[in-house]
Design brief:
The structure is a single chain. This protein has 8 helices and 6 strands, in the order ββαβαβααββαααα. The protein has 141 residues and is α/β, with parallel strands linked by helices. It has a single domain, classed as Glutaredoxin. Strand 1 and strand 2 form a beta hairpin. The protein is globular and about 40 Å long. About 9% of the residues have low confidence.
């Protein structure tokens, strides 16, 4: 059973099996909004920074996402970035951003900031605001 890390940074037990393909590859699946210019741009940068190939990028609109990650409600996928680990553990929103930072050597040095008082609640608020306004904030095609 995977652990699900929500926006509060807490963990709750999940109900789904390990993510398809992640256990064999030893990677973390990054589920993102493939129609969001900010998200697509961020993923492009993450690909560059992920020199060891620990991240696998999956637009949430891809066919089979709901089948491979059935424990993540479609409404949740539509509203936030998700990171799914090799054993099916799942992080959402700001918690996913923090975990990605801890996985990438370039960003790991700055991830300690999340351990400071009030940083996680502030990160959740900022993430929520950006996610809710991502189509207005992002570059226009």
């Amino acid at each position: 059973m995977e652990r699900r890390h929500d926006e509060t940074g807490g963990a709750e037990a999940g109900t789904g099996p390990p993510a398809a393909g992640t256990r064999e590859e030893g990677t973390y699946a990054v589920l993102f909004d493939g129609t969001c210019p900010i998200c697509v741009s961020s993923v492009s940068r993450l690909r560059t920074w992920d020199r060891k190939g620990v991240l696998r990028f999956v637009p949430s609109q891809d066919p089979g996402v709901e089948e491979h990650f059935p424990w993540i409600p479609p409404s949740s996928l539509a509203g936030a970035l998700h990171l799914v680990g090799p054993e099916g553990e799942t992080w959402e929103g700001a918690a996913a951003v923090e975990k990605v930072m801890r996985l990438l050597p370039l960003w790991r040095r700055g991830a300690w900031l999340f351990d400071l008082p009030l940083v996680r609640p502030l990160a959740r608020r900022v993430y929520g605001w950006v996610a809710g306004n991502r189509y207005r904030l992002g570059p226009r095609g």
